[in-house]
């Protein structure tokens, strides 16, 4: 059968051979096909990332889905946003992306869609239940051989972005799936480019494909500074998360990227709500309000945020982790290729350096996202205990996703990662000393339960 622990909060993720193999994907295909057939649906767009195991897992998924009577439109090896684009363009009932996103090369996984919405949380557990109970639909689906959406997608974005002038951009594709797309789009827009690690390679030979971690952006930073370029952009393994460095080679955190995009968005859409996750800086939420928007703090997770956007009619949202969701001039899903283009569009509107874009903000001292190893089986329990303890002591605690404890001069966060066996923490305050005090307080409570 299948290992239940790979069915996480908003996608399927596990270590190849230990937790996921071809049999797993055959069952996932049968389960998802049956899930769709229960709803009177049957067409699936299928794509996969550059991991070495992806092609055989796509084949196994296809076999399972076809046996339920679902039809597969195979778009081949592609970026996750291209799969989302294919769902929209081809009007399929659902989609499946074989990917482990930014996880290391020994992982693989699967992101499932009902239309452009993610199948996650309780719905993903329903799918697991179908597999465990073997309540599979039967039929003979049609397989439509590889139908590349690459040119269509590149054209769509190229015509959507309007630069006032050419911009000098360095791109680090992380040997993931963004490399075949972003350089081509920016070349068509007239940008001057440095391309680094833009050839997809599922062994990720140059660095881990996560552009939100500073050590993975070192080569990009050096290239930007050496060439005196204006901006550097990094993409994760499946190209749905963005990282940015300014002209000085300094990395911008995900909430700073959101802040720059939010200011630009609110110029034309005053009064609109902007959603950001619990890991984001106080500066971001304050700045949205200052620039005429309505800030909303919400749960981490691409599936959670897309659902909330649809539920309340929001067209711009993002996460500290580099997911950016733009329904303004675009289709509303997380697309780091498109978000990169919107950042570069903003750069083209001015001759001011990127390092100056948020220079008017109050100085805050903050950590990046920090990870504390913790077994999957215990992480949610530990977070709940820490949350309850802070509440019992009278602290101001937002528990929408873990525990974000707010103080007069800063805040601390602990939450359980939904993709890896770690607790995620982040700390921010008006001084470095106070930031470290908050960190010590929160970590002290965590360590009591580890």
Count of separate DSSP helical elements: 13
Return the domain count.
3
Class computed from helices, strands and strand pairing: alpha/beta
Q: Say how many strands there are.
A: 22
Helical residues, percent = 25-40%
Strand content: 15-25%
**Quaternary structure type:** single chain
Low-confidence stretches: none
Descriptive overview:
The structure is a single chain. The chain is built from 13 helices and 22 strands. The protein is globular, with a radius of gyration of 21 Å. The chain folds into 3 domains: 4-149, Alpha-D-Glucose-1,6-Bisphosphate, Chain A, domain 3; 161-356, Alpha-D-Glucose-1,6-Bisphosphate, subunit A, domain 3 (Alpha-D-Glucose-1,6-Bisphosphate, Chain A, domain 3); 365-449, TATA-Binding Protein. The model has no long low-confidence stretch (mean pLDDT 96). The chain is an alpha/beta fold and 450 residues long. Helix 1 crosses helix 4. The protein has helices at residues 22-38, 54-66, 80-90, 122-133, 150-160, 182-188, 218-227, 254-268, 282-290, 302-312, 336-348, 376-392, 432-449, and strands spanning 12-15, 43-48, 71-77, 94-98, 107-114, 117-118, 143-144, 168-172, 192-196, 231-235, 242-245, 251-252, 273-277, 294-298, 316-318, 324-326, 365-366, 370-373, 396-398, 403-407, 410-416, 422-429. The longest helix has 18 residues, at 432-449. Strands 1, 2, 3, 4, 5, 6 and 7 form a 7-stranded mixed sheet that branches. Strands 17, 18, 19, 20, 21 and 22 form a 6-stranded antiparallel sheet that branches. Strands 9-8-10-11-12 form a 5-stranded mixed sheet, with helices on both faces.
